[in-house]
Write a structure and sequence with these properties.
Layout (H helix, E strand, L loop, with lengths): L1 H13 L4 H9 L4 H16 L2 E11 L25 H13 L4 E6 L7 H13 L3 E5 L5 H10 L3 E3 L7 H7 L5 H13 L3 E4 L2 E2 L6 H14 L3 E2 L2 E2 L16 H14 L6 E2 L1 H6 L3 H6 L5 E2 L8 H4 L13 H14 L3 E2 L12 H13 L1
Parallel strand pairs: 1-2, 1-10, 1-11, 2-3, 3-4, 4-5, 5-7, 6-8, 9-10
Helix pairs in contact: 1-3, 2-9, 3-10, 4-5, 5-6, 9-10
The site of S-adenosylmethionine has 19 residues, from loops.
Cofactor: [2Fe-2S] cluster; [4Fe-4S] cluster
Organism: Pelosinus baikalensis
Protein name: [FeFe] hydrogenase H-cluster radical SAM maturase HydE
Length: 360
């Protein structure tokens, strides 16, 4: 089917596809290798061979939401809840620095268990270490996002999860799709580097839905796009679902790279959960970021979104040497920069980027 090859060529040269073309690509598996190679070439051309490592600190599993797919949902009483103290979080960030990570990602369930003042203290203290900070705390008010930006946070990850508002509604009791969009817009307006993404393989999600998700990332001009398979968790309402496949997740990621050539795209943990070489395959199919876990001890096991999560019995020190070896093993190298998005669209954006790197 020459048509699929033509679509891949079009995506590689114009970075633009129609919804129908994306659906055709997702439906046909015969040319997957060509798709992955094209995404790898675009990754190399736009963001280079360096891989940015972001140290992930899962600082609390307390959550007030009830997302149907997630093991941390409030109604899952099997989870032992924890929250690290502000000074423990800062200490973990300091350790991340000692492993040469340039960014820490502070991630938690959505809750009010830390005050705004707590979070400002954490952010300011980590900034003083000379690290870039990505937050992933869920939905907050615009004011709260603003306070954290002013305290020094650089980036924010908030996946849209699915752009199909009907599926979104079904899976997120008590939440609204409109508020999710409001949060993303506020974060963008406030000057955060904006990360979003989706789950692949949600119940009732079609290839058309996934095509809409990819086009949404492009219309938002997201700086980071994190996506991975939905992996069913036995302690959630979606326990009996089939979940997403590794191959479809990698395809969605590769098409995303073709359409957003200069975005930062992580090889996600969920991908490695489904395939023991998942992150490396992702890095060879369009990804340029890895987020190794720097959470310590028993907390890794307690932040159990889905079963089979990797690295739960490993130490941060082991993870850094493990992932570094794997990355070097495929001829790529670890970035020594902060890895802000290098927008290739405007010269002044590049200047802004250089300025940002200099000021860190
Ligand atoms: N609470 C914040 C939020 O929801 O944005 C941040 C933490 S949340 C655990 C991070 C991501 O985990 C979510 O955006 C979701 O896509 C992913 N996740 C949750 N449950 C999952 C599952 N069963 N399989 C794969 N990913 C999952
Ligand atoms: Fe809470 Fe985030 Fe899990 Fe939803 S995805 S239940 S907000 S931790
Ligand atoms: Fe944690 Fe390989 S990255 S063990």
């Amino acid at each position: 089917m020459a048509k699929i090859v033509d679509i891949i060529n079009k995506a590689e040269t114009t970075h633009s596809l129609t919804k129908e073309e994306i659906v055709d690509l997702l439906r046909c598996d015969e040319y997957d290798q060509q798709l992955f190679l094209a995404a790898d070439r675009v990754r190399s051309q736009y963001v280079g061979d360096q891989v940015h490592l972001r140290g992930l600190i899962e600082f609390s599993n307390i959550c007030q939401q009830n997302c149907f797919y997630c093991g941390l949902r409030k109604e899952n009483t099997k989870v032992k809840r924890y929250k690290l103290t502000p000074d423990t979080i800062i200490d973990l960030a300091d350790k991340a620095k000692s492993y040469n990570y340039k960014t820490v990602v502070l991630q938690s369930g959505e809750s009010q268990s830390y005050t705004v003042a707590d979070m400002q203290y954490i952010i300011r203290s980590i900034k003083a270490l000379g690290l870039a900070i990505t937050l992933s705390l869920g939905e907050k008010s615009r004011d709260e996002y603003q306070f954290y930006k002013e305290a020094g946070a650089d980036r924010y990850l908030l996946r849209i999860e699915t752009t199909n508002s009907r599926i979104y509604k079904e899976l997120h009791p008590g939440m609204s799709f409109e508020n999710r969009l409001r949060c993303l817009q506020d974060l963008k307006d406030l000057g955060y580097e904006l990360g979003t993404g989706c789950l692949v393989g949600l119940p009732n999600q079609t290839m058309e839905c996934l095509a809409d998700d990819i086009l949404f990332f492009k219309s938002l001009d997201a700086d980071m796009i994190g996506l991975g398979p939905f992996i069913p968790n036995a302690d959630t309402p979606l326990a009996q679902e089939r979940g997403g496949t590794f191959n479809t997740s990698i395809k969605v990621m590769a098409i995303t790279r073709l359409l957003l050539p200069d975005a930062n795209i992580p090889a996600t943990t969920a991908m490695e959960t489904l395939d023991k070489n998942g992150r490396i395959i992702a890095l060879q199919s369009g990804a340029n970021v890895v987020m190794p876990n720097v959470t310590e001890g028993e907390y890794r096991k307690m932040y159990m979104l889905y079963p089979g999560k990797i690295c739960v019995n490993d130490t941060p020190k082991h993870c850094v040497s493990c992932i570094t070896g794997k990355i070097q093993g495929i001829g790529r190298h670890i970035s020594t920069e902060f890895g802000f998005r290098q927008s290739k669209k405007l010269t002044n954006n590049l200047q802004e980027y250089a300025e940002k790197e200099r000021n860190m």
